[in-house]
Design goal:
The protein is α+β, with helices and mostly antiparallel strands. The protein has helices at residues 2-49, 54-57, 62-73, 79-88, 92-100; strands at residues 102-113, 120-131, 137-147, 153-160. The radius of gyration is 23 Å and the shape is globular.
């Protein structure tokens, strides 16, 4: 009778234990992926919102600027999104800061994963701006980033930039 009870416990405990281990491993993998995505978002935002970056403003050779952008951004984006980002967004905030005569510095970045869409994150970056002879101002830039299964950004959308 004792062997029968032990055998039944083992038949119940072993699958539960294996399920728990698999769940833990999936959780760790998901957490590592999420950390990688958050780091990518933070890096892209810091490159874009600290400046103005004079390498982006005062370039002489288009190939030199292209090479500079590749080093900064290419590894984070799909090929299509990289091309789109470079042509529409990469220099946007740098040009505005340069033309308006102020400096930008990222103070804080918050990134939160979407509960409904895997690989999608909402971000909010607090950016300090300062113009010579003026008080420091704060702007918040918020948006949404989507990654594909290869951990590349497929979409980055700025929802609000507080008039930055």
């Amino acid at each position: 009778m004792i062997k029968f009870l032990t055998f039944n416990k083992a038949r119940i405990v072993t699958p539960l234990l294996l399920f728990g281990i698999m769940l833990f491993m999936a959780s760790c993998s998901s957490s590592a992926t999420q950390e990688k995505h958050i780091e990518a978002i933070s890096t892209v935002l810091k490159h874009q919102l600290n400046g103005p970056d004079l390498k982006v403003i005062e370039w002489d050779d288009p190939a030199e600027l292209e090479s500079y952008y590749e080093k900064l951004y290419k590894s984070y984006f799909t090929e299509e999104m990289y091309t789109n980002f470079i042509s529409t967004s990469a220099s946007h905030y740098h040009l505005i800061a340069y033309n308006e005569g102020y400096e930008m510095k990222v103070d804080h970045i918050e990134v939160e994963g979407s509960e409904t869409t895997e690989g999608t994150y909402d971000f909010k970056a607090t950016v300090l701006t300062e113009k010579e002879g003026s008080d420091q101002q704060t702007a918040e830039v918020s948006g949404r980033v989507t990654f594909n299964s290869d951990d590349k950004i497929t979409n980055i959308r700025y929802l609000d930039d507080s008039g930055l």
